[in-house]
Amino acid sequence: MNIFEQRESNVRSYCRNFPALFHRAKGSLIYSESGEAYIDFLAGAGALNYGHNNDYIKQKVMSYLEADAITHGLDFYTSAKEKFLSKFFETLLYPRSLDYRVQFCGPTGTNAVEAALKLARKIKKRPGIFSFMGGYHGMTLGSLSVSGNLEIKAGAFGTSNHVNFMPYPHGFMEKIDTIEFIEAVLNDVNSGIEKPAAIIFETVQAEGGVIVAPIEWMQKLRQLCDRHNILLICDDIQVGCGRTGSFFSFERANIIPDMVILSKSISGYGFPMSLLLFKPELDIWKPGEHNGTFRGNQLAFIGAAAALEYREITNIEQEVKTKETFLYNFLIDKIASISDKVKIRGIGLIWGIDIADFGDSSLTKKIISRCFELGLIVERTGRNNTVIKILPPLTIEMPILEKGCFIIKQAFDECLAK
After folding, report:
1. Where among 314, 332, 366 does a domain terminate?
2. 25-65 pLDDT tens trace
3. What is the pLDDT of residues 370-389, one digit of tens each?
4. Longest C-alpha distance within the chain, in Å?
5. Distance from first CA to last CA of the chain, Å, rounded?
6. pTM for the model
7. What's residue 101's pLDDT?
8. Smallest Cα–Cα separation from 124: which of 37, 198, 48?
9. Which cofactors are required for activity (predicted)?
């Protein structure tokens, strides 16, 4: 038994599926201490869109450290924060005509979710929140309250007070107009459900099984919120920062959420960082009303500004489109063709292979374990973990992407043969 099994909590999870002692990483490869290389189709659960130890971003961070620049600054005005804010607005918000204020929250995505829920309730003076079945928003109490997975909520009793879960357009719910259903709930004086302060949604339910919301559905959701004076919160933690192609995942629907939550890859280098964007008229916070010791991660500011520069230099959006086309064609031709029980879903560089119809919830575990033996790290997700989720760095080289995909194909063939 190693030190981790002896001393680390039972709550550990990823290490159970990928039981190696990792030592270093570069680009889209992770190396174990014994020198074995693994292709990374996990990318820090979406926190490493620009790959491991991206050279451009690393040099900016190293230069900052070598200058003995401030590394912890609460919410002081700092040169690092100034540089990030300037680049963020010049590169992303102004060109898209997005007028948002920026709130720096605690270090992880769930901190920004908590801030969004708190602010929405403060603004509307209503306690209710609508979320969606299959949604995932984090592990703190407020975020758990709007997450659908009952298993992760098991020890947090009473978290979902004032939260109602609406149907997301997936599976059986695709047969009904889910926006029309929400409309009916809001208009029915006998529904038993009060008008919420906000509706929180993901344009792609990543942890829910890589379920991509239709453009028209998102547009109707925006219109519904406008009609009923409800704030629309877009959780772009995992599928933002270019994961779907455009920087913000909601751009394809040509909508503007009232609030946007960013984390994971916003720092560019895997540093903890989360942001809450909201329309200026919603900024009714009093000074210090919502804060946190690590809401000003200076290294993350440097990494984030460098990441935005890197995006411009490399034309990464076009790269994602090219790799999206390859992934779609490969998964349809090589994986979906294995059986009509295999369902493929995805967009940009997030794809899911849904094998729930095989009726064996352990099959994905066997497949990802075999992938790991063959040198690929890929996780499973969705209801009962029946979806294999492909989430490589956006910068992954095409030969490595192809090799990883063929490993998945080999693992499928071998596991189904058994």
Report:
1. 314
2. 999 999 999 999 999 999 999 999 999 999 999 999 999 99
3. 999 999 999 999 999 999 99
4. 65
5. 30
6. 0.96
7. 98
8. 198
9. pyridoxal 5'-phosphate
Looking at the fold, whether 222 and 248 belong to one and the same domain comes out as yes
**Rounded CA separation 142/134 (Å):** 16
Give the domain CATH number at 231: 3.40.640.10
On average, the pLDDT of the chain sits at 95
Number of CB atoms found within 10 A of residue 195's CB = 13
The whole-angstrom separation of Cα 414 and Cα 410 is 6
Contact status, residue 247 vs residue 50, Cβ threshold 8 Å: no
Q: Please choose, from the candidates 205, 262, 264, 351, the residue with its C-alpha nearest in 3D space to the C-alpha of residue 48.
A: 264
Identify the sign of the CA torsion 262, 108, 152, 155. Answer: negative
Which positions ≥6 away from 169 have C-beta within 8 Å?
A: 178, 213, 214, 217
Among residues 284, 314, 344, the one where a domain terminates is 314
Q: Exposure string (b/e) for 48-57, b if CB count within 10 Å is 16 or more?
A: bbbbbebeeb
DSSP 235: E
215-228 and 178-187 are packed helices; what angle lies between their axes, rounded to 10 degrees?
Answer: 10
- 133 and 216 co-located in one domain: yes
Q: How many residues are recorded in the chain?
A: 418
Give the domain range for residue 150: 58-314
Non-local CB neighbours of 275 within 8 Å, separated by 6+ positions: 102, 103, 104, 105, 112, 261, 262, 263, 266
DSSP state of 89: I
**β partners of residue 27:** 52
Q: What is the C-alpha separation between 122 and 44, in angstroms, rounded?
A: 33
pLDDT at 46: 96
Kind of pairing between the strands at 387-390 and 350-354? antiparallel
What burial letters (b/e) apply to 315-335, b meaning 16+ CB within 10 Å? ebeebbeebbeebeebbeeeb
For 55, residues 6+ apart whose C-beta sits below 8 A from its C-beta are none
Looking at the domain assignment, is residue 392 inside a domain?
no
- DSSP, collapsed to helix, strand or coil, labels residue 59 as helix
Exposed, middle or buried, 85 (CB in 10 Å: 0-12/13-18/19+)?
middle
The domain total for the chain is 2
- Residue 286: CB atoms within 10 A of its CB come to 7
Rg (CA), the chain: 21
